[in-house]
Design brief:
single chain, 255 residues, alpha/beta, TIM Barrel, 10 helices, globular
């Protein structure tokens, strides 16, 4: 199991020094770089000792995917530019969280919003596939979005999008915040990517939590062999990072 850390690409040397196997930076930041900034970051990544196989934060907050006023051509244009850069940076997995972007607008019925989200997700998958990228739907807690708040809902969305480059992610922090059962991962057939942080404070894990063991057991039941990204705060990554890595590897072996 490879363990990474979610952070902007300019922290890659710090993440590598802490012992992580890879860094998971945000797509929206990469998409906003100038060409000069992109070349600088590409060189930074090539010089680093770890890769960036996964990316998160697919959309900027101001891109409203479900609004009737949002033109698909705008989404397509953004995705092509973003995925082209992710591909050059070595990304293979992109997390579709972007809670604010996928918010259901006031007055839009849930069924209409869900159908629109299915269409958008399929569109994302189609374009991602052209760049050799798989997107993973991230269920988020209700304080962050009003669409797709559970692993089961995420599985339904991925299934209805019905595209080989659309899969599912599980994030322990969101699962625990919503008081859902990590065992649902096995029931829905597994995941393609994982985020983890403590339920309290959303921090890089420093101590065992029973929920981690339940999550890892469910992942093992589905023969998971993907990545696990720590998406939590750390006051001193040089000290907290190695603790998280040892803890998670131990708990994985014990699960």
């Amino acid at each position: 199991m490879k363990i990474g850390f979610c952070a902007k690409l300019d922290r890659i040397n710090e993440v590598a020094a802490a012992g992580f196997d890879y860094i998971e930076p945000p797509v929206s930041a990469a998409a906003a770089w100038t060409e000069e900034e992109f070349e600088e970051n590409l060189a930074r990544l090539k010089d680093a000792s770890i890769p960036a196989p996964a990316f998160n934060v697919l959309f900027p907050k101001d891109m409203q995917l479900l609004s009737p006023e949002t033109d698909d051509h705008k989404i397509i244009h953004y995705l092509r530019g973003a995925f082209a850069r992710v591909q050059k940076l070595g990304g293979k997995v992109v997390v579709f969280g972007s809670g604010k972007s996928r918010m259901r607008p006031d007055g839009m019925p849930y069924g209409e919003a869900f159908r629109r989200l299915v269409d958008v997700t399929r569109l994302i998958g189609e374009i991602a596939g052209q760049y050799g990228i798989t997107i993973v739907v991230e269920p988020l807690n209700r304080s962050e979005t009003n669409m797709i708040n559970s692993v089961a809902e995420g599985a339904d969305l991925a299934a209805m999008a019905n595209h080989p480059h659309v899969k599912l992610l599980a994030d322990y922090y969101h699962i625990a915040t919503e008081h859902h059962a990590p065992e649902d991962l096995a029931r829905v057939g597994g995941i393609a990517h994982c985020h983890i942080a403590t339920q309290i404070g959303r921090r890089a894990p420093q101590e065992k939590e029973e929920g981690f063991s339940v999550l890892f057991s469910a992942m093992k039941e589905t023969h998971y062999d993907g990545l696990v990204s720590v998406e939590g705060k750390a006051d001193d990554l040089s000290k907290e990072g190695p603790v998280s890595i040892r803890l998670l590897k131990t708990m994985w072996e014990e699960a």
